[in-house]
Write a structure and sequence with these properties.
This protein has 95 residues and is an all-alpha fold. The protein is built from four helices and no strands.
Length: 95
Amino acid sequence: MKCGGSLILFLVLVLGGGLAIGFLTAPGEWYAGLGKPGFNPPNWLFAPVWMVLYVLIAVAGWRVWRTGPRTRCSRSTASPPSAWTNTARTGPRAT
C-alpha cells in the first residue's frame, strides 16, 4: 500500500470509529436537562472539535505505523517501541 493510501485508511478507520461511537452514545434528554455552568461550550462546537482531534489521532497513528520495519514508507528499521526507547534515552535526532 502506498504511503498516501495508508494515511487515508487510518483516517477512514479512526473517523469511522469516532462517528460510530458518537452515534451509539449520543446524549439524550437527560443531558439537555442538566444544569450546566456558564463556561460550558455550546453544543455545536463538540462535533468540529472532536473531528479535528480524531484527524490528529489518525495522523499520529499513521506516522508511528509507517516507521515500522515492514513498510515502504519507513525511514527507520527500528520498531516503534524501540524507537521510542532510543529517543527517550538519547533525545531526538535530526533527520
